[in-house]
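User: My collaborator sent over this chain with a note saying "see what the structure looks like." That's all I know about it. Can you take a look?
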Amino acid sequence: MWQWRGHVHRPRMGAEMLSSLDGVRKGLGLALALLCLFPAMGAAESAKETWIKNLVAQLKIQRRYPLRASDEGGTAKVLFHIDREGHLISAVLAETTGDPALDQEALAMVRRAQPFAPPPPELADGDLTFLVPIVFAPRRTSQILQTDIDPSDAVLKARLGGVCRGC
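Assistant: Without extra context I'll predict from the sequence alone. Here is the result:
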């Protein structure tokens, strides 16, 4: 017979899990921003909601962090308009990140994502303009401090020399 012991074991979250959660959180931010534009009509998912989820997924696939951008990240807001066939008509930067490389990438991301699926008939032509926040999280750089290295460490010397015995 199963008995409640008042104790729940929770596994520790490793660095890999935490970094994947960061990615999920960023994606959810973009999805929520678009979904807030179109409130749900009921419990069942409408064609409009499905189309918006697909549009968000299509944009997320195209997101890249430019190498020449600063490590601080930022949020750009892109205003774009599509036609009834899903072709991009225009895209402009509505709010800057403060980094020209990130701003250019936000616009390029929307351009790369096209053509979008044709919108459902329930969306009016006036509803085909979107203001989307594009979040670039601060880039993490790994740093090794000189104080962290013991020059007499045989394992470190072996790794730096390209020969690792017993690692």
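A starting point for your reply to your collaborator: Helices lie at 15-37, 47-61, 100-113, 154-160.
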